[in-house]
Each structure stands twice: as structure tokens, then as C-alpha cells.
Write a structure and sequence with these properties.
Serine Threonine Protein Phosphatase 5, Tetratricopeptide repeat; 22 helices; 2 strands; mainly alpha; single chain
């Protein structure tokens, strides 16, 4: 019984397309090539912001003194509160500048190391919100945008990038980051336009930093097109990235070529072009041989191609760089189950549940492994736990019917099958092909209602034996 069948252990998980968001340095990308020059630029800007802030503080102190001279206590107290608020907001902004993420991967899987910072970032963002715009540079707005993005406050992130563009309208990275925020808001058509803007403005610039930025914009454009279900257009964009970069040696450009090939594999897999997807993942691994996500998705494709020994090796390779990624342990269990190694599959599912105890798919897959081992009561408990966590899982209810059939409990099996088939008639084909339902299929009492339910023809009647006559 294969692990990608509905009764074989649950769904495989696939890593989606990657997009990247990085920090801008307020319109000085070209300076990055020049080495130490950027330090003086940033220091000058920081000094300018401090001077602007000091001008604001001096103005408050003068206004407070004037209010006190007029003996206008109400106005003086109001100004003192405003002044204190601005000082608090300034200190929060300085702390935010130190903690704000410089680079974020916009994937569905968040890095655990960043989660501990999220609440602090939210607090600092709230405290610094009232700071006067006069003391904020484009870089400050980008760092605020990145912080909002990291906190999954995408509308606020977009607003911060829009403010940054008012200060520095020709900054490729700010336009790029704006595209990422739009994509995370589901506004992928606008995101594509933002990435196209980066490419059109900077594709003929020779500076390395801008060349890398154009490659990143194209990779993210492909991901946005894929999100719009324009998979073939996305694949064409990924091919363009690889063609543009050619045989690059710079690590940053090799990374973008590898990401384009990785994303191409994801889109090809979505189009069920598995052999081509496998080739794309193999090409990506030539550039990033230790990338756990690529080995993981490669294992997914190999499993679907029924090349399970190779799939198992791919999952093991993925675990070398990401030993605590629960989905890999889950998929490894599904593959071991397909190889008939159910005890090892159970151990893999147990490890996945150690890492994420409330995953409904893994509890369901564990139930199937226990069922294959004949441990029916434990299997039923695992499947029930899966349905408790996610009641809307028809494949888990089907798996419970499969378990009851193996357990020789036809009443319960038919009851679950009726519920599944009511809204999901496609499960009838799986039941017709599944030999584990033979306990019901061959039963004189339960066989006819089972065959009627799943759309299986009645077996032909045996012709009566001809009477024998003696010569």
C-alpha cells in the first residue's frame, strides 16, 4: 500500500516557492561596490538624523520655556508630554534599528530563532510610531517595514516601504521589498508589476549589487506568477534567470540561480511534470548541494514516482541539515510505509510528533502504520485523535473505515464509508482497488451494500454445474 494513497499515511508536505526580502541602504546600492565608502555615507546620514532630532528637542524646550514664562501651565504640561513621547519614540527607534531583520525569507515556514524577537519588535514599533517623520530616513522606514513584515503585519510593512520610496524613489531594493509585501497581501498582480519595475530600471546596470537585485526580482516575479496559477509563465521566468546568470561564480548569483531552479521544480510538480521537476531539483543541488529544502522536495517527487528507496535517501539527506523539521520525519514515515517497513515508519511518525504534537496529518499517518502492524486499538486512538484535531479530513475517515475492515468490524467500516462517500464520491475508486476491503467485499451479508456504495459491479454468478450422467 503506497503512502500517497488516501489510506496509506496522509499527505506529503512540499516546500513552496521561495521569495526573499532584504534591507535597503536608502539609495546607495551602487556604493556597495566601492568598499568602505558606504560606512561614511551611513555615518553621515545617522549624524544628520541626530541633528534633526536635536533640533526638534531644542524646539520643544524653547516652547516649554515660553509657556512657563507666560504661566500657561496647561500648555507647558502638554508640551512636556509630547516631548517625553518623542524621546521615548526616538529611543524605541534606535533599539528597533539594532533588532530589525536585515533579510527575511517570505515562506510559510518561519525560522524559530526569529519568533522570540517578534513581540519585542511589535512593542518597539508601537512605541516608535509617533516619532516625527522629519528624523526618519529611507533606511529607517525600510527597517520598520522589515520589522512589520517579520511580525506578519503586511499592510503596515507596505505603508513603511511606500514612505521609504517617497524619500528615495529610485532605490531598487525598496521597490523590491514593496513587491514582497504586496505578494504577502495576496496582491500578486501588483507584486509582479513591482518586480518588473526593478528589472526594467536596472537590468542593464553593471554593478554587481544591482545585477543580483534584478535576479532576485525575477525569482520573486516567478513566485508571484505561480501564486496567480500562471505556472507556465513562472517556469519561463525561472528559465530566464538561469539563462541570464549562466555559469556564474559569485555566491550571491549562484544562490539566485539555485532558487530559480528550486522554484521551477515546485511549479513543474504542481503541473504533475514529475520527471522534469526532479531534473530541476537535481540542477539546483549542483549549485546548493547541502540545501535541505531541495533534498526534501526531491524526496517528495521520488516518492510520487514510486522510487521509494531513492526518496528515503533524499529525506535522510535533508535531515542532515534540518534534523528537527517535523515534515521530513512525516514524509520519511510515509515512504517507509510504502516500502512495507511499518515499524520504522511508526518511529518516524513518533519523532515528528515529538517536534509538533498537534499535527493532525501525522496522527492519522501514525494510525495507518499501527493498523498495518495489527495494533488496532492504538491505531483507532491515533485516527480519532487526528479527527479531533481536524474533523474535516475525509481521507482520515476513509482510513478509519480501512482500519475497521482490517479489524473485521464491517458495520463500523460501512458507517464511515457512507459518511465519506456522501460528499467525496472519488473515494469509491480507492475502495474498489484496495484489497484490505476484501473482508467486507467477500462477506455474503456486507459485500452487496459495500459494492453498491463504492460503485463496484457484482461478481458474476457461477454457472450451475451440469449434472453428470453415467454412460
Amino acid at each position: 500500500m503506497r503512502a500517497d494513497l488516501v489510506c496509506g499515511g496522509g499527505d506529503l508536505h512540499t516546500v513552496p516557492e521561495w521569495v526573499t526580502i532584504i534591507v535597503a541602504v536608502g539609495g546607495v546600492i551602487g556604493v556597495l561596490i566601492g568598499g568602505g565608502g558606504i560606512i561614511s555615507v551611513i555615518q553621515a546620514r545617522r549624524q544628520g538624523r541626530r541633528e534633526q532630532a536635536q533640533d526638534i528637542w531644542d524646539t520643544y524646550e524653547k516652547q516649554i520655556a515660553l509657556a512657563e514664562a507666560r504661566e500657561d501651565d496647561e500648555e507647558a504640561n502638554r508640551l512636556r508630554r509630547e516631548y517625553a513621547g518623542q524621546l521615548e519614540a526616538w529611543r524605541a527607534q534606535q533599539e528597533l534599528t539594532k533588532l530589525a531583520p536585515r533579510e527575511i525569507s517570505a515562506t510559510t515556514t518561519r525560522a524559530p530563532a526569529r519568533e522570540a524577537d517578534t513581540e519585542q519588535l511589535k512593542r518597539l514599533l508601537a512605541q516608535s510610531r509617533q516619532l516625527s517623520p522629519a528624523v526618519l530616513s529611507a533606511q529607517d522606514y525600510v527597517l520598520r517595514g522589515n520589522s512589520y513584515y517579520d511580525a506578519e503585519q503586511y499592510d503596515d510593512a507596505l505603508a513603511a516601504y511606500d514612505h521609504a520610496l517617497l524619500v528615495s524613489p529610485d532605490d531598487a531594493v525598496i521597490i523590491f521589498n514593496r513587491g514582497v509585501a504586496l505578494g504577502s497581501l495576496g496582491r500578486n498582480t501588483e507584486a509582479v508589476a513591482a518586480y518588473d519595475d526593478v528589472v526594467e530600471r536596472f537590468e542593464n546596470v553593471s554593478e554587481f549589487a544591482l545585477r543580483a537585485q534584478v535576479a532576485k526580482a525575477l525569482v520573486n516575479k516567478g513566485a508571484a506568477l505561480a501564486a496567480l496559477e500562471r505556472r507556465k509563465d513562472a517556469i519561463a521566468v525561472y528559465d530566464e534567470v538561469v539563462q541570464r546568470l549562466g555559469e556564474v561564480s559569485e555566491p550571491a548569483l549562484r544562490e539566485q540561480a539555485a532558487m530559480a531552479l528550486f522554484n521551477k521544480g515546485v511549479s513543474l510538480r504542481a503541473l504533475e511534470r514529475d520527471e522534469e521537476a526532479l531534473a530541476a531539483y537535481d540542477q539546483s543541488l549542483e549549485l546548493r548541494p547541502d540545501d535541505g529544502s531541495t533534498h526534501y522536495n526531491r524526496g517528495d517527487v521520488l516518492h510520487r514516482l514510486q522510487r521509494d528507496e531513492e526518496a528515503l535517501a533524499a529525506y535522510d539527506r535533508s535531515l542532515e541539515s534540518r534534523p528537527d523539521y517535523e515534515n521530513t520525519h512525516h514524509n520519511r514515515g510515509a515512504t517507509l510505509g510504502a516500502l512495507g517497513r511499518h515499524a520504522e515508519a511508526l518511529a518516524a511518525y513518533d519523532r515528528a510528533l515529538e517536534l509538533r504534537s498537534d499535527d493532525a496529518h501525522t496522527h492519522g499517518s501514525r494510525g495507518v502504520a499501527l493498523g498495518n502492524l495489527g495494533r488496532f486499538e492504538e491505531a483507532l486512538a491515533a485516527l480519532d485523535r487526528s479527527l479531533e484535531l481536524r474533523p474535516d479530513q475525509p481521507h482520515t475517515l476513509y482510513n478509519r473505515a480501512w482500519l475497521f475492515s482490517r479489524w473485521k468490524k464491517p458495520d463500523q467500516a460501512l458507517q464511515d464509508l457512507r459518511v465519506v462517500m456522501r460528499d467525496n464520491p472519488e473515494f469509491g475508486e480507492a475502495a474498489r482497488r484496495d484489497p484490505d476491503f476484501d473482508n467486507i467485499r467477500d462477506d455474503p451479508e456486507y459485500g452487496p451494500p459495500f459494492r453498491e456504495l463504492v460503485g463496484e459491479e457484482e461478481p458474476p454468478e457461477e454457472p450451475p454445474e451440469e449434472p453428470t450422467t453415467s454412460p
